[in-house]
Amino acid sequence: MSRCQTTSTAGAVATATPDLGTRQLASPGLFRSVFRQHAAGVAVITAQGSVPVGFTATSLSSVSAEPPMVSFGIGTGASSWPVISEAGHVGVHILGEHQQELAATFARSGADRFGAPTRWFQGPEGVPVLDGVLAWLVCRVVARVPAGDHRIVLAEVVRGELSGTGRPLLYHQGRFNALRD
User: Fold this and answer.
1) Whole-angstrom distance, CA of residue 154 vs CA of residue 102
2) Which member of 27, 133, 168, 177 has the greatest number of CB atoms within 10 A?
3) How far apart are CA 95 and CA 103, in angstroms?
4) Residues with Cβ < 8 Å from 55, sequence gap 6 or more?
5) What is the DSSP annotation of the chain?
């Protein structure tokens, strides 16, 4: 595919894909089927509002090392979105392969995510921090970028801890999985 470059009056170079004529957009079903083939690490994102909120995410990405930044996606229809949309800080938790039930709890609509048996404490900046995870970060939200029916949240890491040992939990073909040797 050919690409073209344009230069703005400020001198920045932007790369664009030329119009490909009539484009057929993929259906949401095809899109989901394709991404079921993509194994992803499992994280839980938390924030504190009038009550703590959290959700399971497979969209976590490292963005930058200087400064340390991460991103994740959240649907604007998600029950956690109203709190995440206003939160100054969020917690990011990397789950271990032994935490499939925790991942399922935070993925389940209507679940009591912070009730028994979930173990957690109020961490830095008032963020709910989950016990027993492989690692956690507390991050300052720096941007929320519209992306279709989701928002991409960019957040700068302010604190963190490698708190557990073990292997990561993965999500693949619609199921939580462990790494195999």
Assistant:
1) 24
2) 133
3) 8
4) 44, 45, 74, 78, 79, 80, 106, 107
5) ---EEEE-TT--EEEEPPP-SS-PPPPHHHHHHHHHTS-EE-EEEEEESSSEEEEEES--EEEEETTEEEEEEEETTSTTHHHHTT-SEEEEEEPBGGGHHHHHHHHSTT--TTSTT--EEE-GGG-EEETT-SEEEEEEEEEEEEETTEEEEEEEEEEEE----S-BEEEETTEEEE---
Quick one: pLDDT at residue 28?
86
Entry pTM: 0.83
What CATH number was assigned to the domain covering residues 40-178?
Answer: 2.30.110.10
Q: Which two tokens stand for residue 75?
A: 């649907």
For the chain, the domains span 40-178
